[in-house]
Amino acid sequence: MFYHDLYLLLGHVHTTPNRYRLQIQEMQRVEWPTEEMGSQPCKVQPWGAHTAPRGVDAPYIWLIRAVFLYKMAEGSREQAAPGSTDSEEDSPNMIVYRKIEDIVTRIQDEKAGGVSIRTVKSFLSKIPSVVSGADIVQWLMKNLNIEDPAEAIHLGSLIAANGYIFPISDHVLTLKDDGTLYRFQSPYFWPSNCWEPENTDYAIYLCKRTMQNKARLELADYEAENLARLQRAFARKWEFIFMQAEAQVKIDRKKDKAERKILDSQERAFWDVHRPVPGCVNTTEMDIRKCRREKNPHRVKKSVYGVPDDGQSQPSPVHVSSQPARKPTREDVQKEISFLNIQLDRHCMKVSKVADSLMSYTEQFMEYDPLASVVEPSNPWISDDATFWDMDACKDPNQQRVKKWGFSLEEALKDPAGRDMFLKFLESEFSSENPGKIFWLAVQDLKRRPLQEVASRAQEIWQEFLAEGAPSSINLDSHSYERTSHNLKDPGRYSYEDAQEHIFKLMKSDSYARFLRSNIYQDLLLARKKPPADPEQGRRTSLEKFTRSVGKSLTGKRLTGLMQSS
């Protein structure tokens, strides 16, 4: 906007009379400041109406200042980015912008089934080129195969947040499924044009709005605060900013009223994207990781398995070394062979198997997930039902807890009731793995001990389970025993990690399978599955028995009396 208007001003220079062209030539001989105004004291002070150079008329001071600002801006841009190209593909978000622009283009194409853009008549005024939010949501659901209205509203809000559509009466860029009126942004202001507006441009825009006495152009509270802050920051060159705002206002007044309304709203939406309302997300900010990838696109990419993934493409000529590549030595080949052998030993799973494992795990724990299914009893923090607390305080586990012990040994040992039941089973069998179970619990307790008690407790566990003549010795392989003894030179919470893992594998392969088949677990599981007996049914059965016995006795007495009478 700033440079566009300067081009318009420069167009007036070539149409001025000859005497003003001579004045501009005189202006070129003036000692111009080379630094940006305000950064350092300049040799030539900023001009006012009474401080113009000799031979320059005061009425055209604003034009000369505009040319001066344009020259300074062009010089600063060339110094900031020497040799840089204005490529549209520099932005990491360009792929997203292209997809959004394709959707917006389809929405605006009325011939291909797009949304109809109309002029809405209100009291004593007309609102040109608008659509309703409900029309946009319906189009998104119909043409993008979206079934949920919330998803369509979310997609429309993302499009609005990037500035492609905007409400005509609100600074917050979001989409609503109602009669709120929206307008499409001009392609000139699209983010794909790689806009990077400076604070000077923002100050000119705010200053221009203060000059126009219209209710729709009044500054919001946060904009007024930004204007005051910018005025303090650019105090030394505020006269130039004010002059540029005046020039833009004069150009805008020559435009048609309807066109001016549309352009004002589009410019406001542009700044709502690049200088958003406090509390809104700035969608123009670049992800630092994307920016680093853009600055170094030829960086070698690492694969999942640790092997450099150079791909099939050839490296850039800029990064090709001028020195010839040396032949690999014998040591290099041996290192590569050993590295490839290590990669062959890696445990790799297919994606299909991983997906099947995740699906089976999800289905197995479905009834225990309150987000996936309705868990009984209900959560006492959500409802007023305290049944969950009563069941948790009960010593006897419910059916869900008992059933969960059969999923894995980890689930059985995670539950205190499951640990006690598993230990009870090992004691009933006089199993040799009973000390291993006690050792596993002791190591778990060691991990939760205070740091000052860890060293002494680690030595106690060694003397009880692993030392020579230990009262509760456990069976360990030589590798785990050596690693554990080496770790005890500097005892810590995880000194027995290898030994604990070995004991866990032994219990999982032998004792846990027998525990699931034992009468202790099966009786407990079946007892929880049986429905409780109905006490009313028991009473009815007893009453029926009593009635039947009384009836039999009365029948017997009647038969005896009849026989005696006969």
TrEMBL record:
The keyword Ribosomal protein does not apply. Residues 111-186 form the DEP domain. Residues 408-525 form the RGS domain. Residues 531-547 have a biased composition (Basic and acidic residues). GO terms for biological process: G protein-coupled receptor signaling pathway; intracellular signal transduction; negative regulation of signal transduction; regulation of G protein-coupled receptor signaling pathway. One of its GO terms (cellular component) is cytoplasm. GO terms for molecular function: GTPase activator activity. InterPro entries: DEP_dom, G-protein_gamma-like_dom, GGL_sf, RGS, RGS6/7/9/11, RGS6/7/9/11_DHEX_sf, RGS_DHEX, RGS_sf. Keywords: Signal transduction inhibitor. SMART domains: DEP (SM00049), G_gamma (SM01224), GGL (SM00224), RGS (SM00315). Residues 299-332, 530-566 are annotated as: Disordered. Residues 333-394 form the G protein gamma domain. Residues 312-324 have a biased composition (Low complexity). It holds the Pfam family RGS_DHEX. This is Regulator of G-protein signaling 6. It comes from Knipowitschia caucasica (Caucasian dwarf goby).
